[in-house]
Amino acid sequence: MTALLEVTNITAGYGDGPAILDGAHLTVVPGKVHCIIGPNGAGKSTLLKAICGMLKIRKGEVVLKGERLNGLRPDQILRKGICFVPQERALFPKMTVRENLRMGGFTLGDARELDRRVDAILDRFPILRERANQHAGTMSGGQQQTLAMARTLIIRPDIVMLDEPSLGLAPKIVQEMFSIMKMMSEEGVTVLLVEQNALMGLKNSDIGVVLDLGRTLIEGPAADVLADPRIQELYLGGRKAA
Amino acid sequence: MAQFIQVLILGLALGGVIALMGSGLSLVFGVMRIVNLAHPSLIIAGAYVAYWAFKLWGIDPIVMLPIAALILAGIGVLLYRLMFEQEAKSARYSEMTVLLTFALAMMVEGLLGAFFTNTQRVTSPDYATDAFFISDIFIPKGQLYAGIVSLVIIGGLALFLKYSRMGYAIRATTQNRDAAELLGVNVNLVSVVAFAIGIGLAGAAGALVSFVFSFFPAKQWEWIAMLMSVVVLGGMGSILGTVVAAFSLSVIAAFVGTWVGATWSTMTFFLALFVILLIRPEGLFGEKPEMA
Amino acid sequence: MAATLQTPDTGAVLAARKAHDEKLAKRADQTRAIWFPVTVLAVLLALPLLQFTGNYNYLLHLVLFTASYVVMAAGWNILGGFAGYVSLGHAVFFAIGGYFSGVLLARFGISTLLTAPLAGLLAAVCGYLIGQITLKVRGPSFIISSIALLMIARILFDHWTFIGGANGLALPINDLPVLWAKLPYYYAFIFMAAFTVWATYRIKHSKLGLGLRALSKDEIKAESAGIDTRFYKVVAFALSAFFVGMAGAVWGEYLTYLRPNIFLIILVSANLVLMCILGGKGTIAGPVVGAVLIVGINELFVATMGASELNLFGTGLVMAVALMFFPLGVVGTLARKGKLPRILNWD
């Protein structure tokens, strides 16, 4: 089992500010769903931003299929096969749903192929088909998140990174997000998920990663992480009590 | 009634040029969040290109328009690389860029003034002083031609933004820079292109302005306030909004100029700007006050 | 539950923090060198004695000119530096002050030196009223609104016949001998500059100054911390207008005429912004350093290039370079690096 993406010992932060990530590492296994958990400020989102090129990596390496990604811009990293769906504002609010999907395939050269794929996505998500000509900004939070996630399927990247797709959504809608994620995974897309709700995240993943103070504490099968008493106490138990 | 229609026509005739003057400003703000206070000074630079081409070689300013646009677009690329590219990461980006463009406006005015002095200039092709007559009502040819050319250019811009791949990328970057970059758009390239188009539009507007208004380097301050009122009313970043606002304000200014006094016609724009900023800072077409 | 567990901890942490802060405060106090500004002031006050040895009118003019800009830039700094509202329209208050005192001088022969505080008050009232309106928006919108304000004022002053319209007003020239003619204005500006710098120091360290600095960082947070941001901003606007108006009053008499195209031009506003940025926005010494630098650079440009148009280009160039490479200004950059000489640490 070779790693698809290998993150070794990276340090990163915002601007001239302190390092948020301080020696984090991560091994991404092809075809699996990975869930990154940890307390607020642990550097979960920062890790995704560093991988996709939104943040400058100060130290360490990000290697995708043997190729070093350090220093590339987000648009170049997307072309290498990593797609990032940020926590909020992932859409173009004044473009229609269809135009948003078309933007998802911006890197495709062939316009006819793009139209075909956009239609295929609209077929799979009836809710989006219904609203194909509506401005994305006018949809509900759940619909917007569905669109943002569905959009990644247009180019079928190797890895999709999702930053808290469940944020601010009703429990029932959250379930839908996880089923879309499962759908991605079944298509062979490797998923990297950051989730505040550790219990829920781990239950829906194959591999669990615990981040704290910018460092990777634990990496292992999600079930093991879930069962680990230390994790229970530190990240799951505290949650229950609160 | 005839006078009413006359004033209306004069207002509408100027609206097109003002819309073109504002459209570049709006585009640059939309894509780069740069409030380009130097835009009017660059329009004046474009006007000088057309003025001298006419004066020295007798080239019609409308023929000169594409060349003025290209020259200014080139200057735009240079300015972007030199001044704005590294500012993109600055924490107080929007405020910094306003001050930076303000400094640029002073530099351009100083240079133009040093070369061409602050004498009032106007390009005078035959049509600039001619007019069509429909019974009692006259339509000044120069303003009519300038208005039509402006609308054609703005129409072309709108089609380009709506349907071309680069247009998609520009619109996406305008609406959500991060998301565009995450979907494979080279936002830095898009910024350079959009900035060049914006400044190129200033050059194009300059060629038309050169025979519609008299101009001199220091005229820019009056135009800054005028164009700001147009793009702010239109909702900064919205081209359609800019056009609608340009026509509305131009017509109102024409009426104020006729019935209240010529001085107060420019005042219309300044007061409008003041009022709009206070009542609806996001403009008539804007989504939310992102300039805050 | 968590709160009770942490109580002893927080107490200890707060105590440690307080000790740390006190140490820092002591260090800050130790590095301040009051003697420096006081010495500079003393030298400037004695400077006119040179007139007994020859004609140093040009030197006096330069000092006076710089001092007038210190008053205005330090005043601008209250709104632009402390509160973070960059105004390009402060020439309006310069004109209001200048015209108010100028008209009193022209009609009733009252020296502007006496009416300057009143002119400042009038400018402050105007600033208060204008601020009520324009301070609703911030960032670029505010900057643009301040330009609009200047344009509106220019049209009004250009067409107001009572104050001479675009031709302006001529003011009587004082009847002192040439060597001493500048002295009243010289001392007035030195006094005002010293007063303004002292006042901005007091303001920065007052509750108002604290509130302003808080809201310049994050207005919403400042508001939720219980600061009446609206009131604070408007007061800052009025205070900054006060100093600029006062300077305008005396400047008019010194110049011996008032004209919109001298008082109501954007270059006056631009200079204030430039001085504060170059010197260090929001610091006490910044506007002073900036005024000295800009007046110096200006004289250099005028001496070498002559033409006022190239002068404008030069001002723009200096501003662009300062913004791109020293956004914190001389004082700010040095302070950030911990290399600010003690004599310039007036904060």
What labels describe this entry?
heterotrimer, B: 292 residues, mainly alpha, two-stranded antiparallel sheet, 74% helix, 3% strand, C: 347 residues, 75% helix, globular
Give a topology summary.
The complex is a heterotrimer of chains A (242), B (292) and C (347).
Chain A: E1 5-13, E2 19-28, E3 33-37, H1 44-52, E4 57-64, E5 67-68, H2 74-80, E6 82-85, H3 97-104, H4 111-124, H5 126-130, H6 141-152, E7 159-163, H7 171-186, E8 190-194, H8 198-203, E9 207-212, E10 215-221, H9 222-227, H10 229-241
Parallel strand pairs in A: 3-8, 3-9, 6-7, 7-8
Antiparallel strand pairs in A: 1-2, 1-4, 4-5, 9-10
Helix pairs in contact in A: 3-6, 6-7
Chain B: H1 2-32, H2 39-57, H3 61-84, H4 93-116, E1 131-134, E2 137-140, H5 141-163, H6 165-175, H7 177-182, H8 187-212, H9 220-233, H10 239-259, H11 262-279
Antiparallel strand pairs in B: 1-2
Chain C: H1 2-31, H2 35-46, H3 57-82, H4 91-108, H5 112-134, H6 140-158, E1 169-170, H7 183-204, H8 207-217, H9 219-224, H10 229-255, E2 257-258, H11 260-263, H12 266-279, H13 285-305, H14 308-325, H15 329-336
Antiparallel strand pairs in C: 1-2
Helix pairs in contact in C: 3-7, 3-10, 3-12, 3-13, 4-5, 4-10, 5-10, 7-10, 8-10, 12-13, 12-14, 12-15, 13-14, 13-15
Pfam family, one (chain C): BPD_transp_2
Membrane topology (chain C): Multi-pass membrane protein
Transmembrane segments (chain C): 33-52, 58-79, 91-110, 116-135, 142-163, 183-201, 231-251, 257-277, 284-306, 312-335
Please describe what this structure looks like.
The complex is a heterotrimer of chains A (242), B (292) and C (347). Chain A is α/β, with parallel strands linked by helices and 242 residues long. Chain A folds into two domains: 5-81 and 157-241, 3-Layer(aba) Sandwich (Rossmann fold); 91-155, no CATH class. Chain A is 40% helix and 25% strand. Chain A is built from ten helices and ten strands. Chain A has helices at 44-52, 74-80, 97-104, 111-124, 126-130, 141-152, 171-186, 198-203, 222-227, 229-241, and strands at 5-13, 19-28, 33-37, 57-64, 67-68, 82-85, 159-163, 190-194, 207-212, 215-221. The longest helix of chain A has 16 residues, at 171-186. Chain A is globular and about 50 Å long. Mean pLDDT of chain A is 86; it is low at 238-242. With 292 residues, chain B is an all-alpha fold. In chain B, 74% of the residues lie in helices and 3% in strands. Chain B has a two-stranded antiparallel ribbon. Chain B is globular. Chain C is mostly helical. The longest helix of chain C has 30 residues, at 2-31. The radius of gyration of chain C is 22 Å and the shape is globular. Chain C has one domain (34-344). A two-stranded antiparallel ribbon of chain C has the order 1-2. Classes of the chains: A alpha/beta (242), B mainly alpha (292), C mainly alpha (347). The A-B interface holds A 15, 52, 54, 73-75, 78-79, 83-86, 89-95, 99, 102-104, 106-107, 137, 151 and B 89, 91, 165, 168-169, 171-172, 175-176, 178-188, 287.
